[in-house]
């Protein structure tokens, strides 16, 4: 039996009968719905729902997208992403359509069902060890992104993903940005694995721990020559600063909430006059530095120079709700937005 949350007519953003592409809420809601469409594509496959029983298509057809193709994992044959094309009817053409994407590549997150959970959890562990870029699923994903961009141009393509899928979209966006191609990206509940400092209620303790962590990380980075300040080399972290993804997090979601402190801490360090320490610390992680010291040099996926941070401060009942994709198309969201631009 299908879950109510899989049925667009019961849980989708039906209030968006007409999309204003200049409206941030509308853009966020559509991007999240397209990601949900990938989740349901895979559930349709697992449950062998076909024809009238299939539930996936309303998640994109309601917004006048067509499914061009889906991406399949070569290990478990699960559907992990979809490529959509926007084809609005002439009756829906208006000035805001110029702000719409022509194509969206969307990635789902982990599905805790027997048919896919083993492979998804394996990839979650690759994120933890900074190895997602080495997986065959990412190779399939980045090749698809490159092919679409080569065909239609970067200004016509959006990336979107949730949880594990947000990590995939983030890595794809960073990879393309390193070549000078900046794709608009909507990253919902993207994982940030670190000590849960953001959950500490005492602001002084929280800030003290972040300062200590920054000093230690910057010191290790300097000692291991992970500094570009006195080098002829181009700082790859600074080179990414022109790419500004939309990063959607919930304070109640401990898997992604560290982004809040990670980005805000830079400003506080600048205010204290020790921004140079934080600029070195912010492009490194203790885990990455330790792995590098052991001969396994890797770039932490979650470290990004710039972002439009959107925080959902609407009260949530539990972690499942705080981490879920459904929250991002609610019309009554209480959100706080802030632009962080690395300099």
Straight-line distance between termini: 52 Å
- Lateral arrangement of strands in the main beta sheet: 1-2-3-4-5-6-7-8
Order of helices and strands: HHHEEEHHEHEHHEHHHEHE
Radius of gyration: 20 Å
Average pLDDT number: 85
Characterize the main sheet: 8 strands, mixed
- Which structural category fits the helices and strands? alpha/beta
The count of DSSP E runs of length 2 or more, i.e. the number of strands, is 8
Number of helices: 12
Strand residues, percent: 5-15%
Organism: Salix udensis
Domain Fungal lipase-type: 143-182
Keywords: Hydrolase
Pfam family, one: Lipase_3
Structure description:
This protein is of the alpha/beta class and 343 residues long. Helices cover 39% and strands 14% of the residues. It contains 12 helices and 8 strands. The protein has an 8-stranded mixed sheet, with helices on both faces. α5 (136-152) crosses α6 and α9 packs antiparallel against α10. The radius of gyration is 20 Å and the shape is globular. The model is unreliable at 227-232 (pLDDT under 50). One of its GO terms (molecular function) is hydrolase activity. One of its GO terms (biological process) is lipid metabolic process.
In short:
This protein has 343 residues and is of the alpha/beta class. The protein is built from twelve helices and eight strands. The longest helix is centred in the N-terminal third of the chain and has 24 residues, at 24-47.
Write the layout of secondary structure elements.
Layout: H1 8-11, H2 24-47, H3 58-61, E1 65-72, E2 79-86, E3 103-107, H4 117-128, H5 136-152, E4 157-162, H6 164-177, E5 184-188, H7 203-223, H8 236-239, E6 246-249, H9 258-271, H10 275-281, H11 286-293, E7 307-312, H12 319-323, E8 335-340
Helix pairs in contact: 5-6, 7-10, 9-10
């Amino acid at each position: 039996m299908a879950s109510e949350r899989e049925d667009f007519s019961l849980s989708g953003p039906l209030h968006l009968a007409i999309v204003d592409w200049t409206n941030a809420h509308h853009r966020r809601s559509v991007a999240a719905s397209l990601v949900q469409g990938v989740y349901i594509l895979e559930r349709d496959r697992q449950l062998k729902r076909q024809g009238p029983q299939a539930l996936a298509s309303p998640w994109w057809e309601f917004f006048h997208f067509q499914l061009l193709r889906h991406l399949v994992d070569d290990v478990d044959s699960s559907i992990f992403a979809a490529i959509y094309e926007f084809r609005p009817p002439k009756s829906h053409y208006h000035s805001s359509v110029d702000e719409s994407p022509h194509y969206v590549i969307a990635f789902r997150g982990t599905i805790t069902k027997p048919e896919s959970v083993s492979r998804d959890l394996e990839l979650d562990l690759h994120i933890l060890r900074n190895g997602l870029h080495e997986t065959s699923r990412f190779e399939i994903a980045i090749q698809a992104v490159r092919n679409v961009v080569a065909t239609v141009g970067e200004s016509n393509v959006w990336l979107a993903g949730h949880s594990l899928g947000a990590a995939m979209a983030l890595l794809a966006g960073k990879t393309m940005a390193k070549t000078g191609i900046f794709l608009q990206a909507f990253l919902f509940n993207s994982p940030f694995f670190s000590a849960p400092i953001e959950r500490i209620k005492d602001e002084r303790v929280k800030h003290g721990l972040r300062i200590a962590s920054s000093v230690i990380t910057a010191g290790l980075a300097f000692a291991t020559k992970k500094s570009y300040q006195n080098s002829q080399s181009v700082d790859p972290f600074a080179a990414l600063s022109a790419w500004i993804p939309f990063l959607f997090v919930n304070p109640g979601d401990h898997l992604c909430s560290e982004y809040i402190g990670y980005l805000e801490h830079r400003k506080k360090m600048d205010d204290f006059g020790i921004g140079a320490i934080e600029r070195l610390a912010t492009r490194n992680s203790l885990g990455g530095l330790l792995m590098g010291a052991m001969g396994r040099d890797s770039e932490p996926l979650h470290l990004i120079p710039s972002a439009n941070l959107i925080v959902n401060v609407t009260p949530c009942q539990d972690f499942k709700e705080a981490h879920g994709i459904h929250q991002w198309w609610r019309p009554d969201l209480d959100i706080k937005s802030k632009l962080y631009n690395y300099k």
